[in-house]
Description:
The structure holds two protein chains of two kinds. By secondary structure, chain A is mainly alpha-helical. Chain A contains twelve helices and two strands; from the N terminus they run H-H-H-E-E-H-H-H-H-H-H-H-H-H. In chain A, helix 1 (18-32) packs antiparallel against helix 4. The longest helix of chain A is centred in the middle third of the chain and has 30 residues, at 160-189. Chain B is α/β, with parallel strands linked by helices. In chain B, helix 4 (99-110) runs parallel beside helix 6 (143-155), helix 15 packs parallel to helix 17 (418-430) and helix 16 packs across helix 17 (418-430). Helix content of chain B is 37%, strand content 22%. The chains are: A mainly alpha, B alpha/beta. At the A-B interface, helix 6 and helix 7 of A face helix 3, strand 6, helix 4, helix 5 and helix 14 of B.
Amino acid sequence: MLCVPSWRAAWLPRQLHAGAWWLWALGVGAAASRTTNPVLLGLLLGVAAYVVSVRRSSAPWGGAFNAFLRLALVVITIRVVFQAIFGAHVGGSTVLFRLPAVQLPEWAASLKLGGPITLEAVLLAFYDGLRLAVILCCLGAANALADARRLLRSVPGALYEIGVALVVAMTFAPRLAEDGARIRRAHRLRGRGVRGIRGLGQVAMPVLEGSLERALELAAAMDSRGFARAATVPDPHRRAASVLVVGGLLGVCVGLYGLLDGGGLSAAGSALVGCGVGLAAGGFVLAGRSSTRTRYRPDPWGFPEWVVAGSGGVAATTFALAAGQQGMNLLVVPLVLPAVPLLPLAGALVALLPAWVAPQPAEAS
Amino acid sequence: MIDFADVSFRYPTGRLVLREVMLRIPEGELCLVVGETGSGKSTLLRAVNGLVPHFTGGTLAGRVLVAGRDTRLHPPRDLADVVGFVGQDPQAGFVADVVEDELAFGMEWLGLPPDVMRRRVEETLDLLGLADVRARAMSTLSGGQQQRVAIGAALVAHPQVLVLDEPTSALDPQAAEDVLAALHRLVHDLGTTVLLAEHRLERVVQYADRVVYLPGDGHVLDGPPAQLLATSPIAPPVIELGRLAGWSPLPLSVRDARRAANGLRQKLAGRVRRRTDTRSRHGDVLARTAKLSVRYGGTVALRRLDFHVAAGEIVAVMGRNGAGKSTLLAALVGLVEPVGGTIRTGQLDPFRTDASTVIKAAGLVPQQPEDLLYADTVADECAAADADTAGSPGRCRALLDRLAPGIADDVHPRDLSEGQRLCLALAVVLTAGPPLLLLDEPTRGLDYAAKRRLTGLLRGLVATETARAVVLATHDVELVAELASRVVVLADGEVVADGPTTEAVAGSPVFAPQVAKVLAPQQWLTVTEVAEALGAAS
């Protein structure tokens, strides 16, 4: 193994390991999922935005954060409008304005349509929407800081083939859109308008045919370059590894869901996560021992990666610990000004560390 | 190195493509595979790395040995360390998003140690001149760069054999030179055996050590280039000129031909050249752009471009990949929205006019003519074209019979040859009766015979109907020399040259056709011209 010659070398401009950025972003997202306090949520959003603005790469995907931010605004708007029109009664008394109410039949009595719109109801919807919006922005931050394909490249050997399939699929989608545009242009060249359902059908068939052909060509190219070669591993051995890995990861996912949900499943959730990690690790070891595939320039995982991933973890942990405290989930009836609990505040600030700790991204040529 | 012993191959459809092929290609040769479209070139190439029959199905008789391995027992992935394969469309074979990763993909599967991989990637980047784009996303590369990445990706595994299917057909002359120079280096410096199929012989024949000729009946002839091409119907202009002048040995390169051409130049001095170049406006103007600008997102495709075409002209639009040629043609039929300036096609503003009206003023055959064809049979296609233009039934079919006689009604357009498919697309476009005909890269994938037919056909269209004009966007300098009366050269969306063909191409090192290079400083462009001048004198 190559040793890091000095601490400073780890901070030379380079692309931080994609996994570190994703762990950090997931940590911040998990933190956001535990609160509806708009001050804390705004703080988390600011943290994500600042880190993105100073550490994103100049590659094409660097603009992802803006796209997610716009999506987040849409989410908030929809949430507020729907709550105002259809939402169940929250019980506030500060009426902003009244919409004409519609009397619904007996079987739909639990719904309401129109009627008085209260400040409390709008605020509740806003807090809820904001939480979802911040989680979305965390995903956007992860995308802007590290290409998802780069992350797939560093998946363990046992999942490598799935990873390649996903990478290929991701490059296929834009080509489909290009094909569609080309076929539409060709229709125009024959003097046909392409509109409506019929037009869609006319475009879809050639696009599908084209992509099928391209898939075959790609398969031929991958085969000629040695993809899936060197099957010296006995089949049952390989299959066992795959089952272990996939099963383990499923366990981890379900367990994490239980933990994040914050419900009564905590103990069971922890157990599931533990089992899952164990299974998956076993699978990886099994698969790694038998794989002859080597890896070109694997991304290093050094001290900055630990700090970045850890800061996300700290944020998530502080928010989880403070879950029961006052000010985490704001009451709207009666209306109170948001108070800010200190522990999560500190946690959110820790998540800002990557803005300095992560190395500068290298300039792409 | 490559050994075909009595090989026959039949596709699952029953078509016999290779018949008792005996072929032995020794190590370190650059071997050129020539033949008309559909003669089995791709099949022969794919048999070398086992894609035929492992991937295509079908029956292979006989034995193909590559570096001592039998392709019947080794599927393509197990031959990956001895045969590198580059398909026709490099983009279709890309799996990674960054150049470096794409290069490393094959080696990872071969299980090479990381330090070896690193070294080979660096070497390959240098060998193919890709070092400055190593971290770029694949989608941002130019056509020539993509082709070189594809070659590099096949090369990093250090295969003993490299197989390439038409590596330069989509490239502009300069990019093609780069790719061929890289191949030349491989053969000379590394001793790689290269097997290469190519339609544009004028670009590659001088590098070849051996030519494999497929006459089309499934048999294969092979021999030294000069000997084999002396009689083959497929030959680049420099060889045709050599045949005409009776040179022996037949020169393969412009340099050899120039040394032999002294006598011919003296004989031609003072002879009159029959050529109808045009400077500008000698008929009604069929289309005109004034200060036209077009942009796609951040890139400017056309910048304040002035262009016109008059009846009776055949105008060639040239320039490197991405210079704006296709955009100009697309703008003339209203496919792209101008951000500034004006376009008049006939009397119309094409972008703001209904498509069914525009096609009566100008018709465009796109780069991939199959885009225009959707029906399951030729007859349906023709009927649809008649219906689209509300013309009399049978008009499209009559046009098709004039362009390419003998195509049966019930054939699927996909099963036609490239040349026939182009003619069908042309017939479909001409059904609307547009006075202006636009062709985007029409000779891509056409062999010499099909190209000759296309040339005669387009010339006939303009000669018989005087109100008609043709605009071609093309890289093919030989086609331009043969056909165009005026040449417009674009660079970065601007016109850098506009004038009669002889003036525009004869002096240019990139765009000059072979005959012009051989006979410079005299200004002859094609073999036909020379033959006519000699014939008129004798």
